[in-house]
Design a protein that fits this description.
It comes from Roseobacter sinensis. The protein has about 130 residues and is an all-alpha fold. The chain contains 7 helices and no strands.
Length: about 130
């Protein structure tokens, strides 16, 4: 577990960036600490750390799944992460086109709206 946890901490920083992780750690409480540990070990230390597919592909899959299941709150975070995973804006467009066909146009449309706003925000900060 310790290895996956440490790997997860590193992968989380690689994908989400130091600023995001530092802020999340500063907001950590006793209430959500165990949940954060679970995510660090399972999501970041196991799934994201696997070398079975690239970070770019993982990024696209994550965005597709978030949009397809209507879990829109994390889409901006994962759009920002594309700067670190290598997924391009065109990759995101292609991803959400798949969502439109296989999960529904309204979900893809909302996801694309969030992506557009987040990419605009990123461009302004650059």
């Amino acid at each position: 577990m310790a290895d996956r946890y440490e790997t997860g901490k590193q992968m989380r920083r690689t994908v989400l960036g130091d600023q995001h992780v530092d802020l999340a750690e500063a907001r950590r409480t006793d209430l959500d600490g165990p949940f954060q540990d679970l995510i660090i070990e399972a999501a970041w230390g196991t799934v994201w750390a696997s070398d079975g597919i690239s970070l770019r592909e993982r990024s696209m899959l994550t965005l597709a799944l978030l949009a397809a299941t209507g879990n829109f709150d994390e889409i901006p975070m994962h759009i920002r992460a594309t700067a670190n995973t290598g997924a391009s804006q065109q990759d995101v467009v292609e991803t959400f086109q798949h969502v439109a066909i296989y999960a529904g146009v309204p979900r893809a449309n909302h996801a694309l709206k969030l992506a557009r706003a987040t990419f605009d925000e990123m461009a302004q900060q650059a």
